[in-house]
Amino acid sequence: MIIGVPKEIKNNENRVALTPSGAKELAKYGHDIYVQTNAGSGSGFSDTQYEEAGANILPDIKSVYGRSEMIIKVKEPIQEEYGLIREDQLVFTYFHFASYEPLTRAMIDNKSICLAYETVEKEDRSLPLLIPMSEVAGRMSVQEGAKYLEKPLKGRGILLGGVPGVRPAKVLILGGGIVGTQAAIMAAGLGADVTIMDISLPRLRYLADIMPANVNTYMSSEYNIRELLPSHDLIVGAVLIPGAKAPHLITRDMLKLMRPGTVLVDVAVDQGGCIETCEPTTHENPTYIIDDIVHYCVANMPGAVPYTSTLALTNATLPYALQLANKGWKKACQENKELKLGLNIIKGDVVYKGVSDAFDLPHHNVDNYL
């Protein structure tokens, strides 16, 4: 198969979808890999390293899309890429369709095959291609939140872990999945007073068993969230419904319950955000303020630590990419139910219910295309 790796062009996105090590593995099976020049430079990988691994370097993004049967990316295509994707071309990346209708309709129009990292799902309901970036984003949410609590950055001016004789900051985490768990571990390690909320009692029991003593668990409900907001300094939104739009757990009116300088970090921004006042931001302009509350809503948080993120992502995606390349997307998805669940749009038809529901689009049975 001819595989293309374009350079990511989203604002401040420095990750790359394939490391030289991953390129070498694909080349071993006889696949042709085309990498756009400097695609890996932001993550610390040179064109020479890719060439030594058996990949070919192409001068521009148009060449990569034009030559490839399968495109492997990190982030969803942006408007400049819509016209480069052609009918029957397989695109393997994070799409997050349910949060952005123009992207959805563009991929319907170009009749490509869209296989989304975020909806590849194992039998135990875990999301193997979302987990590594969720781990990075969860840890980063506290790292960034701690920074924006500083007064020069418009925060409350509180040190997350406090000091002897001074109480630490209080951190509220909405969601006890991968992101929430990693955020809690990070916040607890820095010495904060942490509360993690979830609607699953078995999950809360599990978290209570594994977390250090400065992490409390609490059942999530609107009443309980409203009760805790006035006393917390950093709030992390970590709610995910696979392939669907995130629910708003913090509404606009709840901002008035918080103290000025409270920091909100919405890790669910890719899926529309679990905070109603969330709007996607970039690493260039990461925050904005509404009602004296600092909002950090960067849509590609792991892009700020591209070396770590690229290695973690390739570790997870490469086995699936090999199956797609070796067998073709149809056979690979027939034989692997995890990959089959990753199919969102096929040749103009939406085959993932969460996307259909988000925009009231017709839903088609994926089995009809395999």
Automatic annotation (TrEMBL):
<keyword id="KW-0560">Oxidoreductase</keyword>
<dbReference type="InterPro" id="IPR007886">
    <property type="entry name" value="AlaDH/PNT_N"/>
</dbReference>
<dbReference type="InterPro" id="IPR008141">
    <property type="entry name" value="Ala_DH"/>
</dbReference>
<dbReference type="InterPro" id="IPR008142">
    <property type="entry name" value="AlaDH/PNT_CS1"/>
</dbReference>
<feature type="domain" description="Alanine dehydrogenase/pyridine nucleotide transhydrogenase NAD(H)-binding">
    <location>
        <begin position="149"/>
        <end position="297"/>
    </location>
</feature>
<protein>
    <recommendedName>
        <fullName>Alanine dehydrogenase</fullName>
        <ecNumber>1.4.1.1</ecNumber>
    </recommendedName>
</protein>
<dbReference type="Pfam" id="PF01262">
    <property type="entry name" value="AlaDh_PNT_C"/>
</dbReference>
<dbReference type="InterPro" id="IPR007698">
    <property type="entry name" value="AlaDH/PNT_NAD(H)-bd"/>
</dbReference>
<dbReference type="InterPro" id="IPR036291">
    <property type="entry name" value="NAD(P)-bd_dom_sf"/>
</dbReference>
<feature type="domain" description="Alanine dehydrogenase/pyridine nucleotide transhydrogenase N-terminal">
    <location>
        <begin position="4"/>
        <end position="137"/>
    </location>
</feature>
<keyword id="KW-0520">NAD</keyword>
<dbReference type="GO" id="GO:0000286">
    <property type="term" value="F:alanine dehydrogenase activity"/>
</dbReference>
<dbReference type="InterPro" id="IPR008143">
    <property type="entry name" value="Ala_DH/PNT_CS2"/>
</dbReference>
<comment type="similarity">
    <text>Belongs to the AlaDH/PNT family.</text>
</comment>
<dbReference type="Pfam" id="PF05222">
    <property type="entry name" value="AlaDh_PNT_N"/>
</dbReference>
